[in-house]
Every structure is written in C-alpha cells, then in structure tokens.
Amino acid sequence: NAGVTQTPKFRVLKTGQSMTLLCAQDMNHEYMYWYRQDPGMGLRLIHYSVGEGTTAKGEVPDGYNVSRLKKQNFLLGLESAAPSQTSVYFCASSRGKMDRDRAVTQYFGPGTRLLVL
Amino acid sequence: ILNVEQSPQSLHVQEGDSTNFTCSFPSSNFYALHWYRWETAKSPEALFVMTLNGDEKKKGRISATLNTKEGYSYLYIKGSQPEDSATYLCASSNAGNNRKLIWGLGTSLAVNP
Questions:
Q1: Which of A69, B56, B64, B89 has the smallest C-beta neighbourhood within 10 Å, fewest atoms?
Q2: Which residues pair with B11 in a beta bridge?
Q3: Do A104 and B98 lie within an 8 Å CB cutoff?
Q4: What's the average model confidence in pLDDT over A43-50?
Q5: Quick one: what percent of chain A has pLDDT higher than 70?
Q6: What is the per-residue pLDDT for A44?
Q7: H or E segment to which residue B22 belongs
Q8: Ordered DSSP codes for B49-108
C-alpha cells in the first residue's frame, strides 16, 4: 500500500494563478483532511471530508476550495493564489468506524511545498 | 486552556539521557489525545492515541501518560538515541467534533551522539 500520496511535491505560482493539489489514499479511509503548516504555527485545518461527496470547513478555509468526488481522492484548489498561501500543505486520512477505545489516527501524506510569488 | 500547549519548545540532550515533554490540552469535553513524531523533511507519524484518564502507552523506549481531569499528557523517552531526534507533536480532540484535532506547536528534540 502506498498510504497517502500527494501531487505535486513542490510548486511555484505567481499571484493570481490557480492550481489544484491532489491527495490520494489507498486505505479505504472515510475521512480526509487538508492542513497547512507555517513556521511558528501548528498544523491548521483548511477543509475536511467525512465521506465521498461531502466537505466541511476547518479553521482557515478562506481562499481554498475542495472536492471529494471519489472516496480515495481529496482535491484542494486555489482559485487565485496569494503570497499568504505560501506554505507546506499536508493531506491526511483516517478510517470511518470508531469507538471510544480506538480513537481515530490520522495518516499523513509527504506534503506539498507551495511558493506564491 | 483553549489551545494545546507543549513544553519545552526545544530540547537538546546527550545520547543515553532520558527525557520527557509535556502537552496541556482543554480538559472539558475531552475525547482523545494523540502523540505524533515528525522527522525533518518527512510527514508526521502517529505514536500513540489515548482516550481514558490514567491511560499509559508504550512503544519501545517511548511511553506516554494521560491525565484528562487536569488536561495534561507526558511523553517519556528512555535512553535517548540520535535517531530519536525529531519534533514531537500532540493533538487533542473533543467530543463535540472528535474528527478535528487541535494541534500543539511541538517539542523539537535533538539528541547529540
């Protein structure tokens, strides 16, 4: 199993350009998440999905859109990139079924480093 | 406490030393506490998940404890090795939305050979 993969690994954008980050998982997980990680700040949740066809906002959703058309894929879109979106983006996934004694662990992808000029 | 706080921010120890870090989290409506290990240029990897007050987990030389009443968890590393050098993150979730984790900033550990 590849686990969680992210495409691309690195990208440079100009202000105003758009792009889509792809996250794929082969663990049949129900839940998927997009985070950004910036120096001096903890991982911040952008959007997440509790299942195919559903998405929800996290802490910092502005400027981003997401889609979960297939269970294994979670796409993060930047419609008009801004320098403030320069960051490292991590995707994670977790299984759906959960009980009190086995709270869900999130499995992370390798990250996408994005630079917006 | 509204956020997850970790201390110290960074730590330098010698090979063979034992060490520990602290994670403080909101105790009200608590659901779970997670510890992750994050090596430079890699992605975070899960170490432990704990849900019950008094939980203790162990993996090799690393162990963790949980106090949900006062809202803290300790991570212990016995006999630190250079390969233990990493940032150790903790994250908590509450019963209101147990899928969303609140992350601390991490403790950066450097083990000198």
A1: A69
A2: B109
A3: yes
A4: 94
A5: 92
A6: 93
A7: strand B19-24
A8: EE-STT-EEEETTEEEEEETTTTEEEEEESS--GGG-EEEEEEEEETTEEEEEEE---EE
For A84, list phi and psi in degrees, rounded to 5: -65, -10
Question: Which residue type, as a one-letter code, is found at position B82?
Answer: P
- Least CB–CB distance from A108: residue in B43, B105, B106: B43
Q: pLDDT tens for residues A52-103?
A: 999 999 999 999 999 999 999 999 999 999 999 999 999 999 986 565 555 6
Cβ–Cβ under 8 Å, residues A36 and A89 = yes
Q: What angle do CA A5, A11, A15 make, to 5 degrees?
A: 135
Q: Which two tokens stand for residue B74?
A: 């300790």
Whether chain A has a CB inside 8 Å of the CB on B2: the answer is no
Nearest-Cα distance to chain B for A104, in Å, is: 8
Residue closest to A91 by CA, chosen among A64, A117, A53:
A64
The answer to whether the Cβ–Cβ distance between A42 and B4 falls below 8 Å is yes
Report the pLDDT value the prediction gives residue B40, as an integer from 0 to 100: 86
